[in-house]
Write a structure and sequence with these properties.
Residues 1-25 form the signal peptide. By secondary structure, the chain is of the alpha/beta class. The protein contains 6 helices and 6 strands; from the N terminus they run αααββαβαββαβ. The chain has a 3-stranded mixed sheet. The chain has a 3-stranded mixed sheet with strand order 4-5-6.
Length: 191
Amino acid sequence: MTERRNLLPVAVFCAAIAVSLTGCAAALVGATAVGISAATDTRSVGTQIDDQTIEVRVITALKGEDRLDDSRVQVVSFNRSVLLLGQVTNSSLRDLASHLVRNTQGVDRVHNELKVAPVISIGQISQDTYITSKIKAKFIADDKIKASDIKVVTENGEVALMGFVERDIARQAIDIARNINGVTRVIDAFE
């Protein structure tokens, strides 16, 4: 009985610590996920950092341009290639976005897949997220495809695939993505 009384304050203390550290736990889990992602990525850590830096630079350049305020532009960088997906109100804004990206330090190539169209709805964004998750699940289930080698981005039903893979793996990945319900087009941005 004495042991139980002694354990009660310890249990309360541990519970208090656990509750107060929930933010730290979330940060630890997030940092671990980033570390695992970095470790399984085919790019070197330096290239991954370069790509993140390029994304920040491009996003900053696009946000600094008031004419793009009514647009939706997703920016993805992989091995110094930048993919632009989204919607702009006219073709001159599409060209402007390309120009801003090409003039961004560190960018080697631009894949401009921006569409002149109204900005998509939150419902479509949710559907795109679902499509991306289905494709990634199919890649994981396929024993020939290393899912961590392929970056999948979906915008308005169009799926872009980026990464370093052999041509036969790229074809297989494209075929898998093409056959997912809701996919209207697959963009081959493989290297």
